[in-house]
Amino acid sequence: MRSLLLSKTSLASFYSQLSRFGETYYPRALGRHATYEIWRDEEIPAEELLAALMAVRPVEPLKEFFLTSREQVSSFPQPFSREIKPKVIVGAKDCDIRSLIEIQDNVYLKGVIEDPFYKERREKYLIVTVDFPDPVDTCFCSQIGGKPYSTWGGDINISFGETDIVLDVLSSKGEEVIEKMGELLAEVPDEELKKRDKRRAAAERKLLKDNAKEFAPDLPDRIEQQLDTDFWAKALANCVDCQACERICPTCYCFLVYDVPAGKGYERTKVLDFCYHAAYGRVGGGANPLAHFSHRLRNRFECKFMAFPRKFKVAACTGCGRCIVGCTGKIDIRDVLRSL
Fold this sequence. Notes:
Elements: E1 2-6, H1 11-18, E2 23-30, E3 33-38, H2 46-54, E4 70-76, E5 87-92, H3 94-108, H4 116-124, E6 126-130, E7 156-160, E8 165-169, H5 172-179, H6 190-210, H7 219-225, H8 229-235, H9 244-247, E9 255-262, E10 265-272, H10 293-312, H11 322-326, H12 333-339
Parallel strand pairs: 2-5, 5-6, 6-7
Antiparallel strand pairs: 1-8, 2-3, 4-10, 7-8, 9-10
Helix pairs in contact: 7-10, 8-10
């Protein structure tokens, strides 16, 4: 892994260089949060760009670039094709890049059938991950095997030294991009790397302090054995079925497809689906094994913390905390897991 130095005042130039390789999305401050915007060579103060980079992960999960909420996937009898253009995505934290590598890739690339659109996006999109030096109280990646910084999975990683930015090259695709940036980058002094490592260690300590009470090591077994409807109803009593937790989750992957007439043929559309939907489990004839809301609540935890770990050896959750922030009923998923 090669490391290079970027001046904090050169972030705009860095984004402009990245935009040569594809439409570039960067984190822009929006109140207390950050949200992705397209880079248009704007004159934005370096301090503002830096603050958004160091803020909590962007509101939108990284998967939104790879799994659109609705897209046409085929047609009949006419042939169907789509041009997917390169993109550069800056700002993903470790919790988001792990949601692609450990969850979405397992579902969409390593099953019996590959999703060709997801695969092409994974091949064409460049991902620049970013350290999170100051975790917030809703972060719990440390309890799900994560860290507040990324050393793998993306193509380039941004971290923060004493006075400037450290760029780590993580892939051949990232190396190709970095090679063409010329004098914008320099060698990294040892003191910058030492300061970066101190920041990372401090962030890890904060995470561990905020999440001192760990989950049970046998969560899959506890969820399987907890069949009491009253338990789930009580644990999630404040849920109002707004579905914010699922829609904003970086790891939810369910989808459905449907066909509609189009001229003399048909078009097939794929849409993301969510297990809190009343009709999620409904089948032909109207039968629905998840008709009761408490069953659908349990299904979410069963999927993320029982079925997925048993099949792929990793939980379908990365501890990003988006569901905690977005919950209308102020439910903390950590409390539900600990109550098991």
